[in-house]
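Much of what follows relies on a compact textual record of a protein's fold. With that in mind, consider the following protein and its fold in token form.
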Amino acid sequence: MEKNDFSPHKTIVLVGLMGAGKSSVGKRLATHLNLPFYDSDVEVEKAAGLSISDIYDIYGAEEFHRGESQVIARLLRSPLHVLATGGSAFLNPENRKAIREKAVSVWLRADLDLLVARTTRQHHRPTLRNCDRREVLSKIMEDRAHVFKEADLVVDCGERPLSRTVEDVINAIADFQKNTG
């Protein structure tokens, strides 16, 4: 789809597991659509003045998720944009409700091998510290799939150019908008 052929009606929220490519796809999608891009993890860090790892270490997971929900609610009140959420943000029913009301959600679904490969290159994820990444990611996939299925759209991503995933997201949203008015 050509750049000028599509204009989203709502904010686009990317959800999925860590390593699925939400931030990478989101940045390119926002650039393609000439929209602002936000990463909820980055916005939480800005608001707290701490890294996510430090928030977890000092305040715990519950406080991180409370702050994350506040940041997502604030961002959803902003003008049209693309938002990449943290891997567990969509698990919170209040976040899902707010996203459903104010945005279109896209689950970037990736297979286990891809998630393991991508997260192995990253060392900032508290959930994956000092553990068997494959085992932990497999369990997380199993535990969260039923919630991610609540997203408005599902786009499978794999080892292919990001531009292809961006194109698939745009096409999925365009079809969704046509079918929902």
Observations:
- The longest strand covers residues 103-109.
- The chain has a mean pLDDT of 89.
